[in-house]
Amino acid sequence: MHNYFLLSDTEKDLQMMVREFMEKEVAPGLGEYDEKSYIPDEIVQMGIDMGLHCMNIPAEYGGMGLTAREMSIIREEIGKVDAGFSVTMGNNCLGVTPTMIFGTEEQKKYVADIVVPGGFNPFCLTEPQAGSDATAIRTTAKKDGDDYIINGRKCFITNGDRGDIYIVFAYTDKEKGINGGMSAFLVERNLPGVSVGKHENKMGLRTNSTCDVIFEDVRVPKRNLVGEEGKGYQIAMKTLERSRPLGSATSVGICQSVIDLCIKYANDRVVFGKPLAAKQAIKFMVADMEIQTQAARQMVMYASDLIDHGIYDGTTGSCVKAFCSDTAMKVTTDGVQIFGGYGYSKEYPMEKKMRDAKLFQIFEGTNQIQRVVISGNLFKRS
Description:
The chain has 382 residues and is an alpha+beta fold. It folds into 3 domains: 9-115, Acyl-CoA dehydrogenase/oxidase, N-terminal domain (Butyryl-Coa Dehydrogenase, subunit A, domain 1); 123-230, Beta Barrel (Butyryl-CoA Dehydrogenase, subunit A, domain 2); 234-381, Butyryl-CoA Dehydrogenase, subunit A, domain 3, CATH 1.20.140.10. It contains 11 helices and 10 strands. The strands form 3 sheets. Strands 1-4-5-8 form a 4-stranded mixed sheet. A 4-stranded antiparallel sheet has the order 2-3-7-6, covered by helices on one side. Strands 9-10 form a two-stranded antiparallel sheet. A hairpin with a 2-residue loop joins strand 9 and strand 10. Helix 1 (9-26) packs parallel to helix 4 and helix 8 (280-308) packs antiparallel against helix 9 (314-339). The longest helix has 37 residues, at 232-268. It is globular and about 80 Å long. The relative contact order is 0.12.
């Protein structure tokens, strides 16, 4: 178990509260939840009761009002036990961010009044033909008097079936493209024309629900427009810049849990008459895991501190996201190797760690897209 330094008393209390909850309430049934691809509603409710679904909603609106640093500590702790549950809780923070940053005072209160008591606010950007290329979305919002009529299909939406209100990105003027043509809207689940489509049968993060959300002639009042009309793409990108470092804390949690599991297994497993841990090859593999994990953790904490000081650097966010998720994939793959055949068996927890780690290289922009962002920003400066 990693020893944390320089944590405040508040940060230590949050860390221990979440650790105890995950180990006591989530870990015992995790094998069944993963196999059947669900998480009991009562466990989700426990997370809600702890405020894990509204960590970044300011206290003045009833949320926890946590710092980015505090949220990263919490998400690492959740990720140590189950990355899927971290995504379930953490993605609600992603969903409320556009409103909390760009919304009116009335919109902020409205969303908080839905989310804080236990509501979910999914982030609806991705579409079947528009993953990393968000400019390719086809969802439209046509002006009709004082309303907008939204039509489109969003896919891979985290918590889509749990949604009470969605933040939806749509073209209000396709000809203008992303420079003035895309807008963001708050869309209530109970509006006529809103429905949930197919659920994804995923390789990993199976305790988290992912599904399509469909909008068919959904009439949305003008007051639900978040920010200015035509600024939707910029709102989406600014949101992701803030969320990528925090989501990366889950990757760090996966890494730390793999190190802990490998140390225990290597000490207990006897080969050729000696513990596996006596083999230098194994020790060096675990040492490399520790080197990479400590580096990833420091990147997350640095980026979190920047956010807490009002500095939102897209290059840093992309670096953190790419490095932490690549590290998680490397560490979990080596973890399976150390466990040998048992690492490939669902009887042991290691294969789930590897399955869960993979998606962090893909969502919120693939790591190839992160490299496009990083290199593009670097060469702009030259």
